[in-house]
C-alpha cells in the first residue's frame, strides 16, 4: 500500500500550478495551505483546513513551501579546484576559457571513484539547499574515454546528462581544431550518446565558432540528443541565434545580447538560462533579465556550478543576485529557479507543486518565498522531499 503524507499548516505555498496562476498571482500562491503526497507524487493541494486524512502528517508551522529548485545547468564531473585562479581574478586578472584546461588535466588524472564521489558530494550539497533536479554536463575529459566516463558516472546519479565534448578544443588538438570537431562529432559522440540526453557546445570566441557549433549540435541531434548552447557569455556572438534556429531547449548565459537576440529568444521555444554565479565569480556585468522578461522570453536561473567560473551550488544565491542586480522581482526569480529550470529541461513533472507532479518539496525557515532574496546568504532550507522521500533533514 502506498503511504500518504500531508504537509499541513503551510503559511504560503508556491505552486506554479497553471490553474492557479494569474497576472495577480504569478506563482499560484495558496495561503494557509496543505500538500498531500502519495509515493513519489503530489496528489492534492489546497486549504490546510480541508486537507484529507492521511497516514502521516507534518506540520509546517506557518512556514513557506515551494517546489524544489531545478538547476538546469551545472558542470559537476571534475576533480580539483581553482581557488587560486579565483583569487587572482578578484585582484584584477581577467577570466578566460583557458582555465578549463587546468580542470581537464585534474579530471583525467582522477579515478572513477573520485569523480563519482565528488559528484555525489556536490549533489548532496545542492539538495541540502533545496535543489531536487540537477542537470550535469561532461566537458572536463575531452577524450573519447574521459567524456564517456564522465557521462556514465553522471547518468548513475541524474537523468539530466549533457554531452559537452565541445567545451574547448582538447590540448592535444591545439593545432588542429577541425580534427577535434571531427572527433567530437564522430567517435566521441558514438561513445557518449548512449549516456546523454542533451548535447551542448561552448559557442564563444576562444572555444567554438558558429560553423563548428552547428556541426556539433547537428551531429548530436542526428544521434537523438536535444541541443542546448553556451551562448553569448563573454561577448556578443552567434550562439543565441544558432540555439533558436536549431530549436535548442535553452541558450545559456545570454549575457551579451543584441535586440535581434532578445527578439529571437522571445519568439522561439528556447529558454534563456541566466547564470549569475558566473558573472559574480568572474567580476563581469550581469545579464539583463528585465529586458528578456519584458520582451516575453522564458527565463531560467541556474548555478553553472563548476570549479572555474562559478563554484556555487546555491540556487538561493542566484535568486538573490537576480533580484538585486538583474532586474527581476522576487516572484520572477523564484519562478525562474523552479518552473523556468523545468522548462529549460523540457520537464513538466518538476518545478511545480500540483496534483500529478513529482513530490519535490522545499520547506523554508521563513514565512514566504520572498525571504530567499530578502535574507541573502542565510541557510533557510528547513526540509526537502525528493520524489516523495524526505531527504532533509
Ligand atoms: O559555463 N562557459 C564555459 N564553461 C563554464 C566554465 C568552465 C570553467 O571555467 O571551468 C561556464 O562558465
Ligand atoms: Fe556552463
TrEMBL record:
Q: Where does Fe(3+) bind?
A: 73, 75, 230, 304
Single Gene Ontology BP annotation = L-histidine catabolic process to glutamate and formate
Per UniProt, the cofactor note for this protein states:
Binds 1 zinc or iron ion per subunit.
In terms of Gene3D superfamilies, this protein maps to: Metal-dependent hydrolases, Urease, subunit C, domain 1
Q: Give the binding site residues for Zn(2+).
A: 73, 75, 230, 304
Highest taxon in the source lineage: Bacteria
**Record keywords: Protein transport included?**
no
**Transcription found in the keyword field:** no
List the EC numbers from the record. 3.5.2.7
- General function of this protein: Catalyzes the hydrolytic cleavage of the carbon-nitrogen bond in imidazolone-5-propanoate to yield N-formimidoyl-L-glutamate. It is the third step in the universal histidine degradation pathway.
Protein name in the entry: Imidazolonepropionase
Q: Which organism is it from?
A: Actinacidiphila reveromycinica
Print the organism lineage.
Bacteria, Bacillati, Actinomycetota, Actinomycetes, Kitasatosporales
Q: Which gene encodes it?
A: hutI
Amino acid at each position: 500500500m502506498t503511504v500518504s503524507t500531508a504537509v499541513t499548516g503551510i503559511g504560503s505555498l508556491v505552486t506554479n500550478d497553471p490553474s492557479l496562476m494569474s497576472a495577480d498571482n504569478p506563482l499560484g500562491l495558496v495561503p494557509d495551505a496543505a500538500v498531500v503526497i502519495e509515493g513519489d507524487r503530489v496528489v492534492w493541494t489546497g486549504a490546510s483546513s480541508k486537507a484529507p486524512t492521511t497516514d502521516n502528517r507534518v506540520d509546517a508551522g506557518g512556514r513557506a513551501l515551494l517546489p524544489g529548485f531545478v538547476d538546469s545547468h551545472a558542470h559537476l564531473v571534475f576533480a580539483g579546484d581553482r581557488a587560486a585562479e579565483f583569487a587572482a581574478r578578484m585582484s584584477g586578472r581577467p577570466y578566460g576559457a583557458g582555465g578549463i584546461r587546468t580542470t581537464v588535466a585534474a579530471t583525467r588524472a582522477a579515478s572513477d571513484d573520485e569523480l563519482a564521489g565528488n559528484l555525489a558530494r556536490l549533489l548532496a550539497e545542492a539538495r541540502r539547499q533545496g535543489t531536487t533536479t540537477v542537470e550535469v554536463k561532461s566537458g572536463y575529459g575531452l577524450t573519447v574515454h574521459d567524456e564517456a566516463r564522465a557521462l556514465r558516472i553522471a547518468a548513475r546519479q541524474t537523468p539530466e546528462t549533457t554531452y559537452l565534448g565541445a567545451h574547448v578544443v582538447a590540448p592535444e588538438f591545439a593545432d588542429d581544431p577541425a580534427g577535434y570537431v571531427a572527433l567530437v562529432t564522430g567517435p566521441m559522440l558514438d561513445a557518449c550518446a548512449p549516456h546523454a540526453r542533451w548535447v551542448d557546445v561552448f559557442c564563444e570566441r576562444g572555444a567554438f565558432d558558429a560553423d563548428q557549433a552547428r556541426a556539433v549540435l547537428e551531429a548530436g541531434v542526428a544521434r537523438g540528443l536535444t541541443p542546448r548552447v553556451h551562448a553569448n557569455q563573454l561577448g556578443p556572438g552567434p550562439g543565441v541565434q544558432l540555439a533558436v534556429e536549431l530549436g535548442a531547449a535553452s541558450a545559456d548565459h545570454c549575457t551579451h545580447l543584441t535586440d535581434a537576440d532578445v527578439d529571437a529568444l522571445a519568439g522561439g521555444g528556447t529558454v534563456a538560462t541566466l547564470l549569475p554565479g558566473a558573472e559574480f565569480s568572474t567580476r563581469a556585468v550581469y545579464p539583463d533579465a528585465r529586458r528578456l522578461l519584458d520582451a516575453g522570453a522564458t527565463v531560467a536561473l541556474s548555478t553553472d556550478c563548476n570549479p572555474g567560473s562559478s563554484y556555487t551550488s546555491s540556487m538561493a544565491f542566484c535568486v538573490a543576485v537576480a533580484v538585486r542586480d538583474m532586474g527581476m522581482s522576487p516572484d520572477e526569480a523564484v519562478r525562474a529557479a523552479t518552473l523556468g529550470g523545468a522548462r529549460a529541461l523540457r520537464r513538466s513533472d518538476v518545478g511545480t507543486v500540483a496534483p500529478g507532479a513529482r513530490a519535490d518539496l522545499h520547506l523554508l525557515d521563513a514565512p514566504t518565498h520572498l525571504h530567499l532574496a530578502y535574507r541573502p546568504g542565510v541557510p533557510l532550507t528547513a526540509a526537502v522531499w525528493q520524489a516523495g522521500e524526505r531527504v532533509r533533514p
